[in-house]
Each structure stands twice: as C-alpha cells, then as structure tokens.
Amino acid sequence: MKTNDVILQTTAKVVFFIIFLFSIHIFFAGHYAPGGGFVGGLLTTGAIVLLLLAFDLRTIQQILPFNFTIMTAFGLLLALGTAAGSIFFNVPFFTHAFSDFDLPLFGHTSLHTAMLFDSGVYLVVVGSAITIIQSIGGDD
Amino acid sequence: MDLIADIIIVLLVTVGIIFTIVTVIGILRLPDVYTRAHAASKSATLGVMSLLLGVFLHFWWNEGHFSVALLLGIVFLFITSPIGGHLMTRAAYMSGVEPTKLTVGDDLKEAVKEQRKESDKNTPYDE
Predict the structure, then answer these.
(1) Buried b vs exposed e over A48-58: b needs ≥16 C-beta within 10 Å?
(2) Whole-model pTM?
(3) pLDDT digit string (tens) for A54-64?
C-alpha cells in the first residue's frame, strides 16, 4: 500500500539545509573548535541520507548528479597533493604552511594548507559513505 | 541584575528537568504505544528545549558567549521531534499495533481498509 509521505518530505526539505549548513560550519571551525573534515563529512552524509529516506534513490541521484566514487578519488588526490606539495619547497613531506591574506569579502583571514588536507578528508568521507549506502540500498 | 538572570536560568533548567521526568513517568505508566508517543514527543521536546534555552542564556549572560549552535539546536528539536513521534506512531499503526481497550472510535481503520482494498484492486499480483 502506498502511504502519503507529505509531512516527512516537507520536513526533510527544511531540515536538510539546517544539517548541511551545520556540517559546513563544523568543517570550517575544525581548526579552532571541535570538528573538522571527518565530522563535517559525516554530517553532510547524514543530511543526504535524510533525503534518501524521505524520497527514493533515483530522485536523489537526479538532484545530486555526482559520481561519488570519483569524489572519493579526488579527495584522496587532494590530500596526497597537499602532503606532497611541501617537497617542492625543500621541506619534509607533510609540512604545512600558512599566511595572512586580505580577502575582499572576508577581511583579514589566515589561510592554512591544513584546510586543503581537511577538504580531502571531507570529500573522501562523503564519497565513500554515500557510495556504501547507495550500493546497499540500490539493489532492486 | 545578575540575580534576576540567575533566577531565570535556574527556573528554565528546573522546568526542563521536571518535564523530562514527566516524560519518563508517562512512558512507564501510559497503556499503549500511541499514548506513550504522545507523552514522549510533546513533553520531552518542551523539556529539552527549555533546558537548552537555560544553557543558552547562561552562556550569553554569565559567560558572554552567544552560542548560535544552541539556538539552532532548539529550532531543530522543535521541528524534528514531533515528526519523529508522528512517524513512529504511524509505523506502529500500519504494522497493526492495537490501541488500548479504552479507545472509543477509530476513523483511520476504515480509511486504511478502504485504501488497502483500492490498491489491491489496482495491482492484483503485488504482494
């Protein structure tokens, strides 16, 4: 029997954005507060899983047309590239660097290459978790 | 001024804890899954929201830290907790959990029966 999911779907649409914004906040706050790439990635995965629960798999694949396997590979490449980039500046492998910049919208900001490594972790976590869930749930 | 702030904070936290205890008593004493969900989803939501508001005001007035995450948590709980109760009771009803003997009327039973018949007619070989 087909049931009416209007309450769940409407709530999922609203709540998805709250969880997604909070995951972005957790990801960017990782250097100074609890959080980071792993927790942020898992929260983003949780938001997408909420959409998967409220709608069906094909709808979500249309809304988010990413290949999550390639996303995992890209994250690994980004992390490895950040770690390996230090070799070209004649410092040991995995040496990070940071500097202060005056960005147009953000003002005085300090940027750190650990952020790039964290982005890699984030992409790997989101990509692998969504790949696991989609391949388990996609068996018709 | 500090005294008034502290009184408000203590009142909010106390109300939150009392509502949470009321929730537990309701879950233990009420007869069936629907009345228990009624106790759990309403009373616990208000209790935890009140507690979070007390914590938020404490950190804002006494520590000078405006925590947006706590406000977001209050909004989030207010949206999601009743939806959780709704989904659990509906899943219980659809899987045939009987309501308590004290129930006087059940309009949903007729509607579900009618819809089941309709969907059986449309897809005769399904299930």
Answers:
(1) bbbbbebbeee
(2) 0.85
(3) 988 888 889 98
